Amino acid sequence: MSFSYDGYARPRRIILDERKLSSEYVPLKLPHRAEQIAETLRVMQDVIRGQKDVLRTIIYAGQAGTGKTAVARTIGREVKDKAAKGKIPPILVSYVNAQEYRTKFQVFRKIGSDCGLDIPRRGFSSQELAEYVFGFISRRENNALIILDEADILAKQKDGNELFYVFSRVREVLPEVQLGLGLIVIFRQLDESLAYLDKAVVSSLSGRVVRFNPYTSQQLQDILWARIRDEGAIREEAVSEEIIEMIADTVGYNPDTKSGIGDARMAIKVLYYSALRAEGEERETILPEDVRYVVNQGVLPSYIDEETVTRLPLHEKLLLLAITELLLLEREKAYVNMGEVVIQYEDVCNKFGEKPLRYTRIWEKVQFLKKMGLVDTRTGRGETRGRTTMITFPGLPANSVVGINRIPLDLLEKILRDSIEKELSSRGEERGEELTE
Ligand SMILES: Nc1ncnc2c1ncn2[C@@H]1O[C@H](COP(=O)(O)OP(=O)(O)OP(=O)(O)O)[C@@H](O)[C@H]1O
Ligand SMILES: [Mg+2]
C-alpha cells in the first residue's frame, strides 16, 4: 500500500518552516552579534542581578536589518528564561515598539500590560500611569528591563521627550519607587534623533552607544546558512554555496567601496522569495535565475531597468552578452571564470562581425559593469567548482569569477541582442549612406 497525499497538504519541497523566514522571528543564534550581546549584559548586570535604585541605559544604533531588534529580543528572552528558572531574581521584561505605541501614555500602558495589569484607556494621566506601573513593579520587588524599539519616532515628539525624561529621572520623579531599571533604547538614526531630544534628557540617556554596522557579504553568508542549517528553515540540499554567495554579495555591505545595504532582513527575504519561486516551478533546488528574478523585482532599493542596459557602449554590451551566454549554459552556476568570459566575448564579437578589444581591456570593462551594478565579481576561490581547467590570461586577476545577480538572464539576453543588432544595423546604414554620397 502506498500513501497518497490527495486531499492533504503536500509536503513542501524546499521551505520547511515558513515562520522561521519571517522578519518577526527571533533566531536561536545571532552570528556576528556576540559583541553587542556581551556589551549589553555587561551594562545591565546590576539590574539583572536584582540591585535596586540603579538605572542603566544602553543605546543601539544602526541601519535597517542590522540585528538591533533581534539582539534586544534575544537578551529579553534569555533574561526572562533565567528568571523563570530561578537563576536570577525575578525581573519584568517589556518590549515596546514605538511604531505601535506612539505616546507616553500608550508606552506605559504597554509596559503595564506586560506586568499583567489591565489599564483602562482613560481616567489616568500618563504621569499617574507611570507611577502606578513602576509602583506596582517595585512593590513586587522586581526589577525591570524595558526595550524601547524604533525610538526615533518618540524622539521627534514632545510627548516622547517627556517619556525619556520620566525614564531618565525615575528616582527623582518617583521617589517612593524602589527598583532597578534597565533600558535598551533602539535608534535607526541616532544623531538625527538625539538632535531632537532635550539636552538634559540626552545627557542622562547617553550611557553607552552600541553600534550595529551593516553586514558584509561574508557575515550574511553565515546568517543565511545558520537559518538553513541550525534552524532548518529551508532544506539544505535545495541550496548551493553559490546561491548563498550570490544573495550575500548582492545585499552585503562592502566597507572598501562603502556600497551595498548590508541588511539581513533583505537577504533572508531574497532567499525566501527565491525558494518560493523554485517551489512554484516544482523544482527541488533554488537556481541562480530564481535569485535574479527576485532581486530584479525591486526588493533592493536600486533595481536595474532596461535603459541602463541599452545605453551601454557597444563593447560593454557584447561583453555582458558573453557573460550571459556562459551563465545560461549551466543553470546551476552563479559565477563564471574570467578566462572563459574572454574567449566567449571574442566569439560573440566574431558572430556580430565586430573586432574584439584586446583582452587586457576586458577587466577594466568588467569593473565598469560592476560599478553600474550589472555584474558582480568574486575572487579568492582556488578553482571554480566542477571545472577541470582554469583558463587564465596575463593581465586578468587569477581566480576571479563574474556573475549576474540582479537581472534575469533570459530577459537580459533579449535586451542585449535587440540592442546590439539595432546599433550595428544603424551603423551599417550610416556607412551605406557615406558610400553612396
Ligand atoms: N546576526 C544575525 N543572525 C541571524 N539573523 C539576523 C541577524 N541579524 C539580523 N537577523 C535577522 O534579520 C532580520 C532583521 O533583523 P532586525 O529586525 O533585528 O533588524 P533591525 O536592526 O531591528 O532593523 P530595523 O531598523 O529595520 O528595525 C530579522 O529577521 C533577524 O532575525
Ligand atoms: Mg528593528
From TrEMBL:
ATP-binding keyword on record: yes
Role of this protein: Involved in regulation of DNA replication.
Keyword terms: ATP-binding, DNA replication, Nucleotide-binding
PANTHER family according to UniProt: CELL DIVISION CONTROL PROTEIN 6-RELATED (PTHR10763), ORC1-TYPE DNA REPLICATION PROTEIN 2 (PTHR10763:SF31)
Domain Cdc6 C-terminal: 320-404
Name this protein carries in UniProt: ORC1-type DNA replication protein
Entry keyword ATP-binding: yes
Homology family: Belongs to the CDC6/cdc18 family.
GO biological process: DNA replication
Gene Ontology molecular-function annotations: ATP binding; ATP hydrolysis activity
Pfam families the record matches: AAA_22, Cdc6_lid, WHD_Cdc6
Domain of life: Archaea
InterPro entries: AAA_22 (IPR049945), Cdc6_C (IPR015163), Cdc6_lid (IPR055237), ORC1/CDC6 (IPR050311), Orc1/Cdc6_arc (IPR014277), P-loop_NTPase (IPR027417), WH-like_DNA-bd_sf (IPR036388), WH_DNA-bd_sf (IPR036390)
Binding residues annotated for ATP, in chain numbering: T66, G67, K68, T69, A70, Y215, R227
